[in-house]
Amino acid sequence: MGDTTSLGRMRKNSTRLDHVVLWVADPVAAAGFYQDAVGLEPVRVAEYADGKTGFPSVRVNEETLLDLVPLTAAERMDMLPGAADAAGHPVNHVCLALPAAGFDRLRARLEERGVPMSEIGHDSFGARGKALRNFYFRDPDGNVFEARHYDD
After folding, report:
1. Are strands 94-97 and 144-149 parallel, antiparallel or unpaired?
2. Taking the alpha carbons of 139, 141, 144, 149 in that order, is the dihedral positive or negative?
3. Contact (CB, 8 A) for 1 and 15
């Protein structure tokens, strides 16, 4: 694991988050939500729709994806005993850190689409210290996200 002195000095082989797998009812619709409402880039959606890959993703940044895995694939999750049982057991939430302007654009896009959101909070602790502002929202499959920014 990295220490706080490596914050900001990313190396090709440093430890960092690669992807998070989200269980979704309709991966194409989920990718549309994340593209339109959240502003993330879709990856492999056409390939998934053509049956060429098992799931699409959306890109959070150049090194992190959210994989949008259909709930129907749970029975094939056999990498560990009991792995299929993770279907329907969501993580409490995933947090996206954005620049201040991106934070404001995300909140506006969600509001335009009628996505329920929490009030804006302040001074929430995270990987980079205390965030100036944060809020929570839920995707159409019930996955909870936090959006935050650390500086102006």
Report:
1. parallel
2. negative
3. yes
Give the amino acid at 35.
Q
Q: 30 in helix, strand or coil?
A: helix
Mean pLDDT for the chain? 87
Q: Which pLDDT score, from 0 to 100, does residue 12 have?
A: 57
As its CATH architecture, domain 92-152 has Roll (3.10)
Domain ranges of the chain: 1-89, 92-152
Q: pTM to 2 decimals?
A: 0.80
DSSP codes, 84-139:
GGGTT---S-EEEE--HHHHHHHHHHHHHTT--BPPPB--EEETTEEESEEEEEE-
**d(C-alpha 84, C-alpha 142), whole Å:** 19
**CATH classification (class only), 1-89:** alpha beta
Cα–Cα distance for residue pair 130/111, rounded to 1 Å: 25
